[in-house]
Design a protein that fits this description.
This protein has five helices and three strands; from the N terminus they run H-H-H-E-H-H-E-E. It is α+β, with helices and mostly antiparallel strands. It has one domain. Strands 1-3-2 form a three-stranded antiparallel beta sheet. A hairpin with a 2-residue loop joins strand 2 and strand 3. Helix 1 crosses helix 2 and helix 4 crosses helix 5. The relative contact order is 0.17.
Length: about 110
């Protein structure tokens, strides 16, 4: 469920001059970043690059994010035998989320 501020940020982006903002990600990514860090959406040119650098993707849960990141980093070998096949991804995600934050299913690295 989207917050009121997130919805307001999306509306602000709709009113921006297209020449002021050339997104490489869906507009919802920037809205999520702005919401979490309480940034002024009308001043996106001052924080757009930072948002793009911090963006880590869209995931259904912290555990899904942790498992995907581990897979992307080859941290767990494919077809790993026990005990590597029995990772508690929710627990792993709790540790990982010290370095990341999530808003509206979008994940960002703390820079």
């Amino acid at each position: 469920m989207s917050s009121t501020r997130y919805t307001q940020i999306l509306a602000t982006f709709d009113n921006l001059d297209p020449t002021d903002f050339d997104p490489i990600y869906p507009i919802e990514v920037y809205a999520a970043y702005a919401e979490n860090l309480s940034l002024d959406p009308s001043d996106i040119e001052s924080w757009q690059d930072e948002a793009e650098e911090a963006y880590a993707g869209e995931y259904d849960s912290d555990a899904d994010f942790a498992q995907t990141l581990a897979d992307d980093l080859d941290a767990v070998p494919a077809n790993a035998p026990w005990p590597l096949s029995c990772i508690d991804w929710e627990y792993a995600a709790r540790d990982l989320m010290y370095d990341y934050f999530e808003t509206e299913g979008y994940y960002f690295r703390n820079l």
